[in-house]
Amino acid sequence: MSRPTLSEPLDNCSHCPRLVELRHTLQLEHPSWFNAPVPAFGDPKAALLIVGLAPGLNGANRTGRPFTGDWAGDLLYGTLDKLGLSSGTYDQHLDDGLQLKGCLITNAVRCLPPQNKPVGAEINNCRPFLKEQISEMTTLKVIFALGKIAHDSVVRTIGAKLKDHSFGHGAVHHFEEGPVLVDSYHCSRYNTNTRRLTPEMFEDAMGLAKKLAGLY
User: Fold this and answer.
1) Per-residue pLDDT tens for 96-154?
2) Which of 11-29 are b and which e, b meaning 16 or more Cβ less than 10 Å from the residue's Cβ?
3) pLDDT of 22-72, one tens digit each?
4) Could you tell me how far CA 99 lies from the centroid of its own chain?
């Protein structure tokens, strides 16, 4: 997998001590894993940016590609395929030949957090990378936020106020400047097992983001 020509944290990024400690532990326990800040995947000239929460332990932190190798990725990439936003076959590893069409995937936090729960300082530390990524995507029209943490980080990145833009599945947010924001519940196994999010709900929300981005 080649990294998009966008700003990314260094592999040895040291901004968040707690995440660095976990990374070093996993580098010893699983030396064949990626174990580094996970770069964005997809088309850097995309009209649609998908923002998740953070790499999963056995997903992106292991494979080095967002949402690759876990349940959330199965739903995300399956939906992208159904909506015609990818080509090739997703097979949970970097060499599967999958390519995205008109979209790019990243995370609000680029490193694996313990229990998949980043703290506020870690989200804040990673926000400059998201801000620079958004600013460099000159063809960007829509951001699709997976979950409230991603939503909040995008709103703050754009410089808007959270009180004016409440998270809600399928909600659409317009700003004075910048791309449109569309919300979705995160495509996690927990959300799908509890039926908070169904595949149909997820496809509808992503389809709305696709339509607003002008991807037909």
Assistant:
1) 999 999 999 999 999 999 999 999 999 999 999 999 999 999 999 999 999 999 999 99
2) eebebbeebeebbeebeee
3) 999 999 999 999 999 999 999 989 999 999 999 999 999 999 999 999 999
4) 16
Q: Judging by beta carbons within 10 Å of its beta carbon (0-12, 13-18, 19+), is residue 138 exposed, middle or buried?
A: exposed
Sheet holding 41-42, edge to edge: 41-42, 103-107, 48-52, 142-146, 180-184, 172-173
For 171-209, letters b (16+ CB in 10 Å) and e give: bebeeeebbbbbbbbbbbeebbeeeebeeebbbebbbbb
Residue count of the chain, please give it: 216
pTM over 0.90: yes
For residues 23 and 29, what is the distance between their CA atoms, to the nearest angstrom? 10
> What one-letter code names the amino acid at 107?
N
Q: Which of 190, 51, 52, 54 lies closest to 113, judged by CA?
A: 54
Structural domains of the chain, ranges and CATH numbers in brackets: 17-212 (3.40.470.10)
Q: Beta partners for 87? A: 99
In Å, what is the CA distance from 65 to each residue of 98, 171, 208? 11, 27, 25
Task: Write out the two tokens for 146.
Answer: 């997976």
